[in-house]
Amino acid sequence: MRALHRLSAAEVKNAGPGKHADGGGLWLHKRDDGGAQWFLRVTVHGRRREMGLGRLSDVSLKEARLEAERWRAIAREGKDPIKERDRLKREAARSDNTLRTVATDAFEARKAELRGDGKAGRWFSPLELHVLPKLARVPVEEISQQDIKSALSPIWHSKADTARKAMNRLSIVMKHAAALGLDVDLQATEKAKALLGKSRHKPQNIASMDWREVPAFYETLNEPTVTHLALRLLILTGARSKPIRFLSLDQIDGSVWTIPAELMKGREGKTGDFRVPLSTEVLAVIELAKPHSRDGYLFPSARKGVISDATMSRLMERRELPERPHGFRSSLRTWLSETTDAPHEVAETVMAHTTGSAVERAYRRTDFLEQRHALLERWADHVTGKGTGKVVKLA
Domain Tyr recombinase: where (predicted)? Predict the structure, then answer.
């Protein structure tokens, strides 16, 4: 074995990007972005294995050496240290395998896949609110379809979407438990669905305003407040609430607004931003909003961050209107169908909807930006009372 303990504490601290050997298979990998990790190389049954030993910020040189010796000893016994570590984790899980513990572990394992590392809590909240209050202390191996039915029956018909999410999350947790080596019933959630029966909940569409009535409403948004201006942009662009609320000046380049994929419904965690052409009216509204900007965001809240999802809805509630902001997307889509000759794929792209098969989309090399610009300019004319009432032609 090569000499051990080659690195000093000072060398560890001052080492540049690259891989630095401490000896005996222990390495420090420093990345260009400033991060650093320890890893151990060992050979077991003629196969080289590399196992991470933690970040430098969490594991000191002394601790890394102790860990390295621990796993080198395992390798000398002819055991794969990575598999042995996994086995020990599974045994530890068995000693505390309540649903809450396993659910929390499953959540931690999936954080990287979730928007903002799941900090908003939306992934975990259906479990936290509707399953864990009854089943948190139950060993996951003992959970049956009857237990799941009992937990979700109060909301199965009244809050169908939440119940569906809770059932989905619970299924993921059960699969995670199985991956840990626990003897769980992977069919428990499907059996519970059979016991609960088909949901009687009938989803209601969000009320939308007739496109003919939008100009009169738009005219009432005549105050240069954050709420009025945000709602005006939502109407004019057809965008959903979240991209509007998180609109920042660096997303705008001339007459094009590029919405990051993470702010688009259905594109979280994927590549592919979405471009929105900005009409003359939109650019004027943005100029009015700039004095309100804080930390780059055009629509900051009174205290911290950006305005809430409910801010624009409350304005319409106070006016005793049945419609809600999201309904203006339907207003725009109906206007596109009834007053323009826009092809289906262009109109759907205005709404940021996906059209065609995966193969068709792969060969389509356009997002119809120019056609959409013309349509949204005419929509702005209609909204501001300048429209002619004639059919908008793209030709």
Answer: 204-376
Task: Record the pTM.
Answer: 0.54
Q: Give the helix/strand (H/E) hosting 37.
A: strand 36-44
**Same domain flag for 65 and 107:** no
The CA distance from 49 to 253, in Å, is: 49
Contact indicator for 329, 351 with CB cutoff of 8 Å: yes
* CATH number, residue 164: 1.10.150.130
Domain that holds residue 15: 9-86
Q: CA 34 to CA 172: how far, in whole Å?
A: 34
Nearest to 147 by CA among 182, 178, 184: 184
For the chain, the average pLDDT equals 87
Which residue spans within 239-314 are E strands per DSSP?
Answer: 252-253, 256-259, 274-277
Residues 6+ apart with CB under 8 A from 306: 245, 246, 297, 299, 300
List per-block mean pLDDT (blocks of 10 residues) for the chain, which spans 395 residues: 80 92 92 91 90 92 93 92 85 76 89 61 86 93 95 92 92 93 93 90 73 94 94 94 92 93 64 86 95 91 87 91 90 93 91 68 72 94 79 57
